[in-house]
Amino acid sequence: MGQDRTNLQQSMRCALAATCVSLLVAVLGDSGEDASPSILVMGSSGLIGSALVEALEAASHAVIGVDIAAPPIRRYASDPEGERDGPSQYFNLDLRKPESLATFDGQAIRFVFFLACDVGGSKYIDNSPAATQRRILQNNLELFQTVLPWLQSRQLPFIYTSSYLQNEAMPYGTVKRLGEMWVRHMELGRTVRLWNIFGFQPVGLRSHVLNDWISACTEKENIQALTDGLESRQFLHVNDTAAGLIAMMDNFASMPEVTDMSSGVWLQLRDLGEAVIGVAKQHSLKCVIEWSAKSAKKRKMPSPTEVAALHAVWRPRVSLEDGISDIFSAHQDQTINKRARDGGGMCSVNQDCREGVL
């Protein structure tokens, strides 16, 4: 009888407290219905977001993706024969508009990855014209003004992706630094600074240098470098980045306000070029790199801080060569598929095929 009375009292308290149900679901898990809280990935169609969605779903997490761009059609190393087009729940929204977040009213969300900033490689964030620089400032400010107050009002734990360039005197560095300062004053927010993430992307205004080099090598067997290649960088594969973000989420309480995520290995771009040429040979390609006489812009390049809380649960696993090889395979697949769509037939990527000889 005493146990029954205790159970009744607990049931009444649950009925009176709306949060009790959410807590029970979070602790006990899904009961077989679609009631488990989801992970919201803002920026799910980008380089990092698409890899993160794949990794989360592979780990059986319920994922909601949102992006202003359509989900990418891309080749995944874990699914080499097939193609995927994004998370099972996807919303095409412009998060700069406050009304867009009303879409998630009533949605059970337990964690958020804020990857939706207006970003790109150096040709976009550093070398684009003044109008583009103003757009970087405006787009990201509007995102912060909409998303961050919403996260605060929903009391959702989240990770904001910043950059090692946050100290640079340029619009991109300025908005990343502003985002860090804003998140620092939100008790449920954490910042991760990323260092030169690489993976397959269609070549465009926002694509990154390593990806562009491999694309040029695949299509023309010639890479035109924009600098003399004497600058050094650290590179981290996008799959390792996704794994690191999930590790931060899983160990959120032990993460500091700001975490650097990188390979920890400095590499001169000339050495990176040699690695690309070496892997190209494995893909039956003979590439050459023509280096510019122009030096890269001087940057403040502090080494990333190794955060014990992160490195206790995560280390990079994808080697530079394996990551480069995967990008080569993706670009070669893209070239083959494009020729097939254009009526050129299917063929392996070799010299005859590249010249249109079937």
- CATH architecture annotation name of the domain at 196-234 and 264-297 and 317-358: Alpha-Beta Complex
Distance between the termini: 84 Å
CATH superfamily of the domain at 196-234 and 264-297 and 317-358: UDP-galactose 4-epimerase, domain 1
Helices and strands: which structural class? alpha/beta
Q: What are the low-pLDDT stretches, counting only 5+ consecutive residues below 50?
A: 1-34, 74-82, 345-358
Number of helices: 12
- CATH fold label of the domain at 196-234 and 264-297 and 317-358: UDP-galactose 4-epimerase, domain 1
Explain what the structure shows:
The chain is α/β, with parallel strands linked by helices. The protein has twelve helices and 15 strands. It has helices at 2-16, 18-28, 47-58, 122-125, 130-154, 171-184, 209-220, 238-250, 269-282, 308-311, 320-341, 351-354, and strands at residues 38-42, 63-67, 74-76, 79-84, 89-92, 109-114, 158-163, 189-194, 197-198, 222-224, 232-234, 236-237, 258-261, 266-268, 288-290. The chain is globular, with a radius of gyration of 23 Å. The model is unreliable at 1-34, 74-82 and 345-358 (pLDDT under 50).
